[in-house]
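Quick illustration for those who missed Monday's session on complexes.
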Amino acid sequence: MKRAVILLSGGLDSVTTLAIAKQQGFDCYTLSFDYGQRHDAELVAAKKLSIQMGAIEHKVINIDLRSIGGSALTDTTIDVPDHHEAGIPVTYVPARNTVFLSIALGWAEVLQAHAIFVGVNAVDYSGYPDCRPEYINAFEKLANLATKAGVEGQYLHIHTPLIDLTKSQIIQQGIALGVDYSQTISCYQADNEGRACGQCDSCRFRQQGFEQAGISDPTYYQKQI
Ligand code: ZN
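Prediction with zinc ion bound:
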């Protein structure tokens, strides 16, 4: 039995991560969060792709981070910027990966899974502190101190297969594994049909990735760009 919990937002990175976990022979249990993000389109994509890509089970956890706010993604009074900001941008969601990984850790213990996969990336990314390798290493240490499974010697690994890859390398790897990127949603402010704005940081990293990979961009945009 080789089980893994995969954090799945429905975006390009997390869906590629799911494909990699599957290729490595894991039985995949996908976990998404309805945390009050600006649109539901990514949750729809995560569910659809989980089924298509053969996940054993897909779970959506409701945890409304709008109640603490503090991010352009969880507070509608803060605009999503259409240009790259210096420093950590306002799209950073306070402690989001710590919240998500903690719940993934709980589910992994219930499933007797010894692996959590998360599609964090330290190359083409927005400078979020909870995407850095040192953060992931620290969380893995905490995870093994925090659980009954850890105390009983069942070591849990946090797998970050994308951490050192550029966006174009991620896309190339996903294409080789048969990922259908037209169904993934990366945009911070996609519309109800899942069409991307083409302006936000996440859209720009995605566009550049397809360009650099020499692969035509299958993203559905709100307007021709
Ligand atoms: Zn966008």
